[in-house]
Structure formats: C-alpha cells, structure tokens
Amino acid sequence: MAGRIMQVLFPLLTVMLAVKSAPIQTPRKTYNMDKLVRVHPTSLEQVVALEKLQNHPSMKLDFWKVPHLNTSVDIHVPIHVYNDVTKHLSRVGLHPSLLINDLQSVIDQEQASMEIPDYVINSFGVMSISGLKPRNSDIVGKYARHSEIDSWLINIADQYPTLAKVESIGSSHEGRDMKLIRIGKNNEARTKPIIWIEAGIHAREWVAPATAIYTIHKLLTEYGINPVVTQLMDEFDWLILPSANPDGYEYSHTMDRLWRKTRSRQSGRCTGVDPNRNFDISFGGAGTSTNPCSDIYPGTSAFSESETRNIRDALLSERARIKLFLSFHAYSQLILTPYGYTSIKPSDNQELMRVAEAGVASLKTIHGEMYTAGTPPDLLYAASGGSYDWAKSVAGIQYAYTYEMRPAEASFGQSGFILSESEIIPNAEEVWASLVTIATEIQY
Fold first, then answer.
1. Rounded distance, CA 46 to CA 295, Å?
2. Is the Cβ–Cβ distance between 28 and 254 less than 8 Å?
3. Which strands sit side by side in the sheet containing 237-241, from one edge to the other?
4. How far, in Å, CA of 401 to CA of 403, rounded?
5. CA 128 to CA 131: how far, in whole Å?
C-alpha cells in the first residue's frame, strides 16, 4: 500500500518542486496598438515642440529619428498617450501620418518568420518548445542570438585556421564575451593595414550584426576562389566585432525587441546607456539627454560602459595600422562621414566624401538601392559621443564611416528597425559591394 501511495505522490512532488524552483519569468515587453507616426517639422517652433515632447518624463516617446528642421521624424507613440501626443502636435501645426497602427503586430510577423524555437516555462516549470522549428548551425542570413554568433565565430575560425583567429576584447556588463575575429592572409605578421568593422552597438538594429556575419563568411569562404576577396585579404587584415553590445542585443531578443542601450544600472529605476553616445568626443553634447531613462542618455561619464571601454582599448592597441573604421547601424540608407557632433568638417572632408560617394555608387549597382553620403548634421541631426567620431578624432584613424542600412525609411506597415530576415542577404550584398570599392579607393 505504501508503495502504491509513493507511486502516486512522487510525480506530484516532482511537479511541485519544479514549479517552486522555476525562475520567475519577467513578461516580454509588448507594444500592443502602439503607433509609429511621422511628422515633418518646417519651423524652429515645431522642432522645439518636438524636442520638448522627446524629453517629456511621462510621455516616454521613442524618437526613431531625432527632431531636425525640414526632415521627417519617426516617433513610436505608446497607445495610452497617443491622443495627448496628437493634440500637442496639432497645436504647433504638425499633423502626423500613421505609418504603423499596431507595432506589436509587425514584431509578431518578424518573429513568426524566424526559424527560432520559442522556449517557454510551462505551468509545471518545465521548458518546452512551442511550434517553430530550430535553425541549423549556419547563421548567415539569419538573426542569430549572441551565443549563436559566438559559437559560429569559433567554428568558422576552426575551419580556416590559416586565415582567421577569434579573440576576446573583454566582457560586457553582464559578463558576456565580446569576440573579435581577425581575418587575413598571414595576419599573424601584423604588418598590413587594418579594416575594422563594429556592428550591433545599438541593440535593436539586428541587420547590422547579420551583415557583419555575412562579411566574415564572404571573406573566409571565397578566399582563393574570388579574386576580389583574395586581393582584399592579401592587402588588408580585417578585424570584425559583430556583437558590440551583447547584453542589449540579447535583451532585444528575449525581453524587448526595441531595446537600444546597454544593460547597466543607472540612477532611479533606469537601465542602460546609449553606447554610441558614450565615447569621449564632445561627451554629453548634441543629440544626448540628461534623463537616465532616455534612449540617448550618454551615461555618467565617457567610457562608463564596459562595452565601450573594451572597444576603445582594442582600437588603441591597433590604431597604428587601422586605416578604415566602419560602424554598422540601421536605418536610413546612409554612409555617414565625420563629424557627427558638429557642423565643422574635418580637414580631409573632400577625400572622405570622395571615397564615401564611390561606395554609394557601387552599392546602387547591386539592387538599385539609393544611399546618400554626408555628415549627420547635414543629413540627419548632430549627435555627440559616437564611436566613429572618436575613431577619427582621437584614435587618429584616417577613414571613418557609419553605415545606416536598410530600409531608407519606415514605411506604411513596415518598421525601420524590424526588417524581415529576407532582407539580410540583399542588404549585405550591396554593403559588400560598397566595402570593396571603399577598400580599393583607400589603398592608393
């Protein structure tokens, strides 16, 4: 009889213990019925009004493009403040166009298209998979998680041991490894000029790391086969950091698709710093906010973040050989030249523009996409503390650019940051074409 009782009770006890020991799951942030709207300020009064809304503590608006005169501004508006925001805008003559009526539906469509298993803790505390088939180990053309990127880097370097080596430049705030892959023929000699690529410093811009992965794959799998790739590998060493903000990137996959910043604790109940405002170049100046909860909060001091310190130290250790610095972002379809923090141009602006425009021309030949070259103040807005400005001004790297990739703009029903996986390869192909041209132009 006792044995029979234990047969019944043991499974129940196992379930109770599993439930008790299962971690409390923080709900994934959702954006049900949140709106994406666009306005086009044509007066300074309208720009000032938008800036006040951007810094309004209770509105918590997410400006995907910072207010700038005669430039379209995309604003993510939570549903609970939508009516108040439209009233504020109408008072200064701004009448928003509705680009996305339900932002969560666009996120859901993106998630459904990805071959990623949805692991959940069920009511019994047991991990299960809901519906979607798992991806294979090839992450090229996919939105991979940080751990997948790390594993892939190690595996592909093992496949091409004479061409590639993976090294860590340090750990993130939450302890994730920041892996850099060093690619080149005879790169151990460390005598050739370097092309540096950093991607994913803004967590929600998933196409940036995916494009870096494509570039790595292209260089390694086509060396000795493709004469263009072979020449670029013979002439340059390539240092590529595909996941520059590991904690934020992982958080954007698991908890909040639109997360942008790092994950360090800030004052009050705020989390994270904009790492592309955290470099020591006009720190805390244009395009930043003193509000720790803001998406453009630069931090308490320059290089307050583990991630930016790691990038700084890696760049400084190689700066004598780095000839080209590239930072991959999205979106707007731009190749940005220095400087981002001021309207003053560097002394070699003409040369920087020549090379950038050559890259734009090559990019267009692939899929017909139009990019524009120029400085952020001329094309978008001023922004201080950026990695490429620091690379140019402080590290002394001659050629420094930021790519803002697909799409050109958020369109009706399509978010700028939430880009279908089907766009990764076409985007990467055209970016590659521009890289070939830029690398060729700077050799001479």
1. 21
2. yes
3. 164-171, 177-183, 237-241, 194-199, 322-330, 399-405, 334-336, 372-374
4. 7
5. 10
DSSP string for 162-214: TTEEEEEEEE-TTS-EEEEEEE-TTGGG--S-EEEEEE-SSTT-THHHHHHHH
Q: Could you report the per-residue pLDDT of 345-394, keeping only the tens digit for each?
A: 999 999 999 999 999 999 999 999 999 999 999 998 899 999 999 999 99
Q: Which residues of the chain have pLDDT under 70?
A: 1-26, 115-137, 187, 412-414, 444
The whole-angstrom separation of Cα 381 and Cα 286 is 9
- pTM of the predicted model, to two decimals? 0.89
Catalytic (active-site) positions = 404
Query: What does the DSSP 8-state code read for residue 417?
Result: S
Q: Could you give the CA distance from residue 380 to residue 240 in angstroms, rounded to a whole number? A: 27
Q: Is 225 exposed, middle or buried (0-12, 13-18, 19+ CB in 10 A)?
A: exposed
Q: How far apart are the first and last CA of the chain?
A: 89
Q: What is the pLDDT of residue 381?
A: 86
Distances in Å between the alpha carbon of 393 and those of 279, 356, 400, 439? Answer: 11, 18, 10, 20
pLDDT tens for each residue of 208-265: 999 999 999 999 999 999 999 999 999 999 999 999 999 999 999 999 999 999 999 9
